[in-house]
């Protein structure tokens, strides 16, 4: 007999894992499908200081590791696979993966977001050769080098602070005249002697032969272009990009109601298709944080259980 899960969760970030914890704890037959590794964007974060109740010096990886443990303790199954097609309109949903197909009475979409690129010439060519979107992954490569952080929000400033532990100089490039990060984070950055700022500027082009050797900055206020070159002894520098994120929802275009790529839900995480829920950063919401992602996942799991009991049992 072919296996039918009570709920299949697509994505193993905080939203997906929280959904898995709540669903499995409620004795639902639960499967979490993740195409790479658990964690989502939080796994590349060095410090998680604002998650309520987290232990001191908690990191993204440590928080995710504990969430994964909890899903296993409650009996949720996990599989590494990428969902490439789906049939959601019937009472039994079918998710078609690259490895195999999965059937479920309900589906929770928790695909999250991906880092937003600058979109300038040279960026793609130098990914992994000076351009990075993950400070915790690549900071060690720039021990005693100069690095530049593009962005001005919480993530950009937090990662700049982290990079200052490795690089001899960190310069934040921001398109505006002031940072958008929380005041408490800004204060830490302004007090850090290694951190410097270039205001009202954007990266226009990244250049080099095999590795990043220079970048062209455009000042939005004066209209001037300035080229920054690597120190002669270093030969290169790092460019770390933290200018936001884009939802990973291409699979659901034309299937679910969406707004600018984000899945629309009600407060119970219900989408426009019965038995299909969305949670975390992939859905339209005012605040994208670990705490809200986990809350979304918990709500989605509880609502999925109610859907199975109330709708499918009729």
UniProtKB/TrEMBL annotation:
EC category: oxidoreductase
A Pfam family reported for this protein in Swiss-Prot or TrEMBL: Pyr_redox_2
Family annotation (PROSITE patterns): PYRIDINE_REDOX_2
Domain of life assignment: Bacteria
Reactions mediated catalytically: [thioredoxin]-dithiol + NADP(+) = [thioredoxin]-disulfide + NADPH + H(+)
Record domain FAD/NAD(P)-binding: where: 5-297
One GO MF term: thioredoxin-disulfide reductase (NADPH) activity
Record bears the keyword Cell division: no
UniProt GO BP: removal of superoxide radicals
Cofactor: FAD
GO CC entries: cytoplasm
Enzyme Commission number: 1.8.1.9
Keyword Hydrolase: no
Family per similarity comment: Belongs to the class-II pyridine nucleotide-disulfide oxidoreductase family.
Subunit structure: Homodimer.
Name listed for the protein in its UniProt record: Thioredoxin reductase
Organism classification: Bacteria, Bacillati, Bacillota, Clostridia, Eubacteriales
């Amino acid at each position: 007999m072919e296996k039918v899960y009570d709920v299949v969760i697509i994505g193993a970030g905080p939203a997906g894992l929280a959904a898995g914890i709540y669903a499995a704890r409620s004795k639902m037959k639960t499967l979490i499908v993740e195409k790479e590794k658990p964690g989502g964007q939080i796994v590349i974060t060095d410090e998680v200081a604002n998650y309520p109740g987290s232990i001191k010096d908690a990191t993204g990886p440590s928080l995710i590791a504990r969430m994964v443990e909890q899903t296993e303790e409650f009996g949720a199954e996990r599989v590494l696979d990428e969902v490439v097609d789906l049939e959601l309109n019937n009472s039994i949903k079918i998710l078609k993966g690259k490895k195999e197909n999965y059937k479920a009475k309900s589906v929770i979409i928790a695909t999250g977001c991906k880092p937003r690129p600058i979109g300038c010439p040279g960026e793609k060519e130098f990914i992994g050769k000076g351009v990075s979107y993950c400070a915790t992954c690549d900071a060690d490569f720039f021990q005693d080098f100069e690095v530049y952080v593009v962005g001005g929000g919480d993530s950009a400033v937090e990662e700049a602070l982290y990079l200052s532990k490795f690089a001899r100089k960190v310069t934040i490039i921001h398109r505006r005249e002031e940072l958008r990060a929380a005041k408490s984070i800004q204060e830490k950055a302004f007090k850090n002697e290694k951190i410097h700022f270039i205001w009202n500027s954007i990266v226009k082009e990244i250049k080099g032969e095999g590795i990043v050797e220079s970048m062209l900055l455009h000042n939005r206020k004066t209209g001037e272009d300035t080229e920054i070159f690597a120190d002669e002894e270093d030969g290169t520098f790092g460019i770390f990009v933290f200018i936001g994120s884009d939802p990973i929802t291409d699979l659901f275009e034309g299937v679910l109601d969406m707004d600018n790529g984000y899945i629309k839900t009600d407060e119970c995480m219900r989408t426009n298709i019965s038995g299909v829920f969305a949670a975390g950063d992939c859905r339209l919401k005012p605040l994208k944080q670990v705490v809200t992602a986990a809350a979304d996942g918990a709500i989605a799991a509880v609502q999925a259980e109610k859907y199975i009991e109330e709708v499918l049992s009729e």
